[in-house]
Amino acid sequence: MAMVVAGKSPTAFLSLGRKGDAENRIFHTNIWFTGSNARYESLLPRLHRIDNYLLKCADNRYVRGVQFRTLHMTSGVHNTYLFGRAARTYRYGFITNVQHIAHTRFPVVVDMDDPFFTTEEISLLGSQRVAAIVVTNESAANHYCELGIRAPIRVIGQGASTLGVDPGLARQLRQRRVPGELTVGYVAAWHQTAEEAGAGTAYDVDHLVDEVWPAVVRACPRARLWLVGGIGAGLRRKLDGRDDIEIVGRVPQHQVPTYLAAFDAAVYPRRIQHRRAAVKLSEYISAGVPVIGYRCVPTDLVTRTGAGIVVDTTEEFVRHLTHVLRSPVLRGRLADNARAAASLVDWNVLAQRYAELLDEFLPAGGRAGLVGVMS
Question: pTM (2 decimals)?
Answer without folding.
Answer: 0.86
